[in-house]
Amino acid sequence: MSTAEPAVQHDPAQHRFFVRLPDGSDAILAYEPIGGDVLDLQHTIVPTASQGQGVGESLVRAAVTHARRERQRIVPTCHFVQAWLERHPEERELIAA
Hints:
Blueprint: E1 9-11, E2 16-20, E3 26-34, E4 38-45, H1 55-69, E5 73-75, H2 79-87
Parallel strand pairs: 4-5
Antiparallel strand pairs: 1-2, 2-3, 3-4
């Protein structure tokens, strides 16, 4: 397992954050904008071969950082995002009421 954090990219046209994996596939966190100030984080997909390597966590962290920087709130529809927020209570203030 590498200690380097995967390089997360943002594709706003496709409403996703993604990591290009060594095999050429992508791990993604897909979202849907709600209005101008809320992101519904809908689902995270990490191919089986890359699970357990921090890729999903990097995707969620990038989405949360983006939301904070853009003064947006999040709706954690994705179960992985919900679990991540349970482990990172300091980020729960971003959750839209």
